[in-house]
Structures are given as structure tokens and as C-alpha cells.
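seq as requested:
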Amino acid sequence: MENPLPEPVRGPCALYVPPQEGTDALASSFATTYAGVVAFITVVHEGSFAKAAQRLGVGRSAISRSVQKLEIQLNTRLFLRTTRSTSLTGEGQLFYENCKPGLERIIRSIEEMHDLRSGTPRGLLRLSATVGFGRTVVAPLLSDFREAYPEIRICLLLDDGPADFVADRIDVAFCDGRMDDSQVVAKQLIPMQMLVCAAPAYVQRHAMPQTISELAQHQCINLLMACGRPYEWHFKVGGMERKFLPQAASSYNDTELVLRAVLDGHGVAQLAGYQVCEHLRTGRLVTCLAAYAPDDRGHYVCYLSRHQLPNRIRVFIDYMTQHIRALDLHCITHFTPLARD
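C-alpha cells:
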């Protein structure tokens, strides 16, 4: 015959609840208070209730009550107490040996969390960026960042879709245009200019479009979304946004391939300023239709909160902000507006 379940302790302080049939040790353990375990282990470490109270910054009576409640919950005496000494019972010694490693791990975990906020930056940093901006701007800076912060590990995910901070566990995202999410902090890094460009060799053969409508007569190169649809070209006419989708001579789902096709003289494309600035300065590309350039959308670094940021995230944001802005990726040019559309 099985032994009956122990009788619950009676009285106003009776907190012990016997485990019900079908419950496991984890469910039963919820009845044991963390405060009681902390008080118990501190008494063992310090050797007395008075010293434990001093260590924890509470009154001796509070320590005594916590341990008493713990004994009631466990239905076990943990200490043998006299006016001059305090010692563990056999059950108390066993409970101490079982609890000590777990509490030490909790304390280490708490200390580690504080260290992540104020100590040496370290740990895994998960990043997200659009494919073009990630390859051209972000990735080349990561090597020097890792040299400056060798204890930070980097995981960079390139995706032209919106960053999913929760599902992909993203710490920092680089976005083309500010994210429409009130929970996301967005800090502008550099402007995002969209420029219609072509190679000089193409211009010699076909000239350059002088109006948006003339684009239909040119060999346009489109960028494709992940779903296969082409991105529309954006312009601003008379203060109003205007979208245009040209009949493409060729299309690619990679911004680097679009840029390469333009550099090779295969056609005209609308490209981001960070991709073409250096090519415009060296004369490998020329631009047109600047009078109809759309509003600057900006390139942003985004993260979920300004508060309680781990050190690795804080130093990364500061580092990338400083170094990306130093790259001089803003194509500052002056054009005479055209009188016709």
C-alpha cells in the first residue's frame, strides 16, 4: 500500500500545500518562495540570523520570518537554534547543498546582465540590412568594428523586406526609409537620394531623357522585389509625388547587378545615391532628371528601445553612425529645373 500524502500544517502561517496527484516537482516548487531561500542560504553563509540580516539590509525578524515560512512550506526543520548558536539539521544541510548551485547561477546571471549594460561590450549582435546598403555600406565597416570590439560576434542578415525584430531576434536594422512603427527607434544616418543614371557610353549612343515621359524611349533597367514585381521609379512633379514604371530592357533582383548593367552602358536606372556617388565623381556615370528627384527618404539605423540597451548595441550604433556619416555618400549637386514635364 502506498504511503499517504503528508498532512498539511495547520494554523495561520500554514503555507505548505501537499502536491496533488499528477503534479510534478516543477509545479510543486512554485510554493517555495525565493525570498525564503535567499534568507536561508545567507544565514548559512554568515553563520547567524543577525549577520544575515545585516548582509541583506533587513531586520533580523524579517530573516527569521522568511526562514520560518520556508520551513512551513517544506514541512521540515532546517536549523537547530539556541541563544548562542545556529546550525543546520540533516535536512537543512541537504536542502542547502541542492539550493546553493541554483542560487549562485541566478546571482551570476544577474551580474552578467549588469555587465552587459556597463562592462566590456560582448555577445552576439544580430543585424539586418537591405541587400544593397548592407553589401555596399554596412559589411565593409564590420571588419574594423570587430577589431575594435573583439568580444562582439556579428550575424548580418541581408533582406530587402521589412525587418522583423521579434521573429528574427534582430538587435539593429538598417532601413531604407524610416520604419512606420511607433515601437522602433529610427536614427537617420545619411540622406537617401534616388538618381536616374547612365554611363557616358550609353549617353553617346542614346542621349539622356530630358523629361519623365521620355524614359519610355530608353533602355531602362528595373530592380525586382522578392516577389518578382519591379520597383516603381519615384519622382516629384509640381510638388506632387509621381510614380513611373518603365518598360524594362532588363531586370534584376539585386541592386549590384542593376548598377553593373548601368556601368556597362546597357541602359538607364534609378539608383540610390550611396551606390553611385563615387561613380558620379569619377565620371563613370552621369545623372539626369534631377529637377524631378523625389523627396529624401533617408537611410536609418533602427532598434527597439532607447532604454536598457546592452553595451554591444550601444557601441555598435555609435560606431556605425560615425563611420557611415564619414563616408560622404550624399551626392550634393546643383541642377537647373526643367520647365517641362
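The longest helix spans residues 90-118.
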